[in-house]
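HUMAN: Ready with one sample?

ASSISTANT:
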Amino acid sequence: MATGDWRIDTAGGLAGQLESLPADATELDATAVERLDSVGALLLVQAAERVGIAPQVIALRDEQRPLLDAVIAAGGGGEPEPDSEPAWVSFLAHIGEVTTSFGGGLKVFLGFLGLGLSSLVRTMFRPRQWRITSTVHHMEQTGLNALPLVLLLSFLIGAVIAYLGATVLKEFGAELFVVDLTTIAFFREMGVLITAIIVAGRTASAFAAQIGTMKSREEIDAMRTLGLDPFVLLVLPRLVALLVMLPILATGATLAGMAGGMTVSWFSLGIEPGLFMSRIPETLELRHYLIGLVKAPMFAVVIALIGCLEGFKVTGTAQSVGERTTSAVVQSISLVIVINAMAAVFFMEVGW
């Protein structure tokens, strides 16, 4: 029988009562306990489990029963039961959880995409809702400020592609075809892909962090209180800015990549710039440029909407802002590469 005070400050002196409990006891009477806190309730539960008594049948005063029930519901301090499921079952369960999470995320993104396109069309015919100042600001942040980095990396990648092509083609005496390789690669694929990856890492994270910080500070709730639409104020300017600037950046990246390939061809293969430039019209067709250009708006929509969507998912803590920023970068880059691969297969199958 338990008596006295079962509290944290008397826990050290309760060892005698716990040891005196017989090993074959069938019940635990704690009705004589005068004062009880969570530590005392945890000791009662552990004492009952030690002798094989269900904690739910401990005799206790009515006013102390809710506290004991809360401790039991929280785990009661007992040893967790070992997981008896086979490893393959847990593995399949994890796959199911990931698949379900992916499906739910895709559904949310498609809904956000529909909302974005419908808002863009609706706002197009309402000039008073155009946020020109905000749009121009984001055009500068996402476009002009990213231009030096895009040009530099595209130049270097163009040089690498030309150098690798020269290494292989030199064995066959076909060094001139390095021009064809660099031209088709950058106008068709690499120019827009490099730009989209750089913008995804640079801009999607910025969008998620900006909107996420605003949400954590309850600024978005204040907008709704004032009767303003956060989507029109925050998402559309970023979306329009990226739709305008990404094709421009992709064109600059393509030209920079060609310059890098021309530089390597000149110094490594002896192909002079004049010969390099005269070879381009013979190789390049309009469809190659259009295939690269048509993917730029798709990449812009994906990057802008994923960045903004992850910002709206922030729950209010600094850790959440960091997690959503990382998620925005990973999702946008992954989706850009997936879309580019699907587009490449599609255009190849239709003969373009």
